[in-house]
Design goal:
Strand order of the largest sheet: 4-12-11-10-7-5-6
Helix content: 25-40%
Shape: globular
Number of helices: 15
Strand content: 15-25%
Length: about 450
């Protein structure tokens, strides 16, 4: 398909219409008076192409969803084929091949054999929390209905997901609506005292979790954790030892372990799923984002036979009474199957090891920058904390990066990159040099 650059007047009209009618997510709309949204016409591989003819390297995989590049031919072909067969049917009382095959495939990958589907990550969080509390109710322990999460944890922005999200910006305005969960210390390796290792921090944080569970396990349904990387907390990374100790503590105190793999799943941390690096099996896994390779909305919650059996009964009230109109949509499931096929066809996990090493080498000047603190990488996730006096560093840096054809959006003072798995040499150079140039330009604004 050929793409042409839209006339300048048409581009301006598209932005104006967007500002008049579209309420953009996670955005103070007034800021668009000075910085209008960028109109994108099409995308290919790791590149986004604006209606003005400029291209931008998608350094954050369009909010962490895109794995194998935009418009991947294998996923497109699968969607076209599925569209000729079945676009949608409700999953209540019906089934279809894509949802069955995807559930079988996810079960084989995780060791959890029962998949329940939603549309996005927050929905997956809500499903897992509701399912956990309902399990305890069905097994005669309705008092176990509270939850505990990590300081700085993020699990979505719907009301139930906000209950286990410990980021004030997202939940303070909705506090009257939210039944807040408890929080325990994060195992963030940046908290290491002099002489401590990341494993020491993990053990110290796990000890705090153990003390909390000893006191509150009777009314606690589940612990929810982002395994290995707390993304919205500034890519806070922790040692796998924390997950091993948390699993043992949850077993001891009869509390479910929910791992939120919405952002960390599908190869982002170097393994297919982050929790696998700890050698544990959780009670629930939440999946979304990369599940469909960044093409269609889909989320899934996988759980154990024990949980499933607690709902299997004659009484309707004992069933899991939760639904979404597009639960298990055939097109989305087919996209997910095509994405999983690409992991096999491209040997993606192995290929990512070499790609990550190339990006590491290219980013050496950035990593060694005098203003960088706690440079870190796990799999295909990079992060650099920036020492700066700018209170709006994130906004300023994003503008400087965009001016260089690079999409990077720092979280606070943490610059990070989570690119698609398909960067070639040109794209690697664009990411590394653009990120460094944007940093230097942003820091120069401190004196302005």
């Amino acid at each position: 398909m050929a793409f042409t650059t839209a006339p300048k007047t048409a581009r301006k009209d598209l932005v104006a219409r967007s500002l008049a009618h579209v309420w953009h997510p996670c955005t103070q709309m007034k800021r668009h008076e000075a910085q209008p949204p960028v109109a994108i016409a099409h995308a290919q591989g790791p590149w986004l192409y604006g209606t003005d003819g400029r291209r931008y390297l998608d350094g954050i995989s369009s909010w962490w969803v895109n794995l194998f590049g935009h418009s991947h031919p294998h996923i497109k072909a699968a969607l076209a084929d599925q569209m000729e067969r079945l676009d949608h049917v409700m999953l209540a009382g019906f089934t279809h091949a894509p949802v069955v095959e995807l559930s079988e495939r996810l079960g084989a990958l995780t060791g959890l054999g029962h998949a329940f589907y939603g549309s996005d990550g927050a929905a997956a969080t809500e499903i897992a929390l509701k399912m956990s509390a309902h399990y305890w109710r069905n097994t005669g322990r309705p008092g176990k209905s509270r939850f505990v999460g990590l300081a700085g944890g993020y699990h979505g922005e719907t009301v139930g997901a906000l209950a286990v999200t410990d980021i004030a910006l997202f939940r303070e305005a909705y506090a009257p609506l939210v039944r807040l969960a408890a929080t325990v210390p994060s195992p963030d390796a940046r908290q290491a005292a002099p002489g401590e290792t990341p494993e020491d921090v993990a053990r110290r944080s796990a000890a705090a979790l153990g003390a909390w569970l000893a006191e509150h396990h009777a009314d606690t349904a589940a612990l929810i954790v982002e395994p290995l990387v707390q993304c919205a907390a500034g890519m806070a990374m922790h040692d796998p030892e924390y997950l091993r100790l948390a699993r043992a503590l949850c077993d001891r105190y009869e509390v479910h372990l929910v791992v939120d793999e919405i952002a960390t799943g599908f190869g982002r941390t170097g393994s297919m799923f982050a929790h696998q690096q700890a050698g544990i099996r959780p009670d629930f896994i939440c999946l979304s984002k990369g599940l469909t390779g960044g093409t269609l909305p889909l989320s899934a919650v996988l759980t154990t036979d024990m949980v499933y059996q607690a709902f299997y009964a004659d009484e309707v009230a004992r069933g899991f009474l939760h639904s979404h109109s597009y639960t298990g949509n055939p097109l989305a499931c087919r996209a997910a199957l095509a994405t999983l096929e690409l992991f096999d066809q491209l040997d993606a996990l192995t290929a990512n090891v070499a790609l990550a090493q190339r990006i590491d080498a290219a980013c050496t000047p950035l990593t060694q920058h005098t203003r960088v603190r706690h440079a870190r990488r796990l799999g295909m996730v990079w992060a650099w904390d920036i020492a700066t006096t700018l209170p709006d560093f994130s906004r300023r840096y994003h503008q400087q990066a965009m001016a260089r054809g690079l999409v990077l959006r720092p979280i606070g003072n943490t610059l990070y990159a989570m690119p698609p798995y398909v960067l070639d040499g040109e794209a690697v150079d664009c990411l590394a040099s653009g990120a460094l140039d944007a940093l230097n330009a942003t820091l120069q604004e401190e004196t302005c």
